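Quality-control log, excerpt.
Job 1 of 2 completed; input and output follow.
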Amino acid sequence: RLQKKARSETQRLEMARTLLEKNQKLSFRRTHGAFIANLRASALLHGLLENSNSPAYVDALTASGQVSENLGDYTLGQYYYESCIRQLPHSLPAERCFSQLMTSVRETNPYIDSSMGDQYTVQMNLEKLRLLAGPIELKHVPSRYKDVDGP
């Protein structure tokens, strides 16, 4: 039964991705058909988001961010990307989510690289998320066994 459920989750994720790809290939983002296709994808994805232990959960977060942006809700899309990073830090999916988050932030706020007002707070949050998304950087840690590593 678990295999059937997992296969079902995989199938739902693939169906949602197919709807997203169709929208992107046809530059279909702002038409009535695209609206319906995005709502269908959203319904499929929200079923997957009910279980944070699902293997499809992180991919569903990423795709939900894309659907939200297609529907014009960039703030919700950014929330999904941030959730993806926090769910699986220091991983390839987290790096992809961070890349999509940065693209979204730059599209919605072209002055993000300036040092005006609240931008500092946004930049600091993005920097924290970048570090969380990327690989773990090992810093020099003093060792009790200094002779093992050499001088």
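Job 2 of 2 completed; input and output follow.
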Amino acid sequence: MKKLMMTLILVPTLLAGCGADATSSGIETRINDELGVDAHVPQTFDYPIGIASIEYGFHMEDGDVVLDDPFFANIQYQLATEEPFEGIDREAWEEEHRSEIIYGDFYQEPSVVSMRISKDSFGSIIDAGTQTISGHVVQYQFLQRDANDIVIIGFDIENVGYLLNYQLIDGQTEEDAQAFASEIIEYYQ
């Protein structure tokens, strides 16, 4: 009985101590295994990871969709993760998006950061300029919108592509978006 009580006390304490770091580390490991890359998933105490998924390539075979190797991961940092969306069929979503949800759920609160991690290259951002962040040249675009401004940053580093869509909500600034990208770049330095 004493062992059971200690387990009931210690396990939640240990899990609580792992927090966001354990979450981002576990997601990072899964992405690295699936994509065959050395990706970095920043830990942020400001915004929790709401959902992470791996998207697969596909081809048609006898009229059926056949999944190929994974080609990128998507991670959503949410404003909050307190109110999940009700009624979303995860299996149907995964099938429709040729994806596998590897962490989390869909939430009603808005996404602050959407991050796509790709093998080799993120591609390009239409009409983007360039900036240097932590000594690394990135494609950079600042979009002014009525609802909120958006910073889009794309870069390739060590055979991994990153595309960040950073919503300037909840007091976030352009400098916060740059700092987020900087953390990823500095991981490789």
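Post-run check on job 2. Confidence is low (pLDDT under 50) at residues 1-20.
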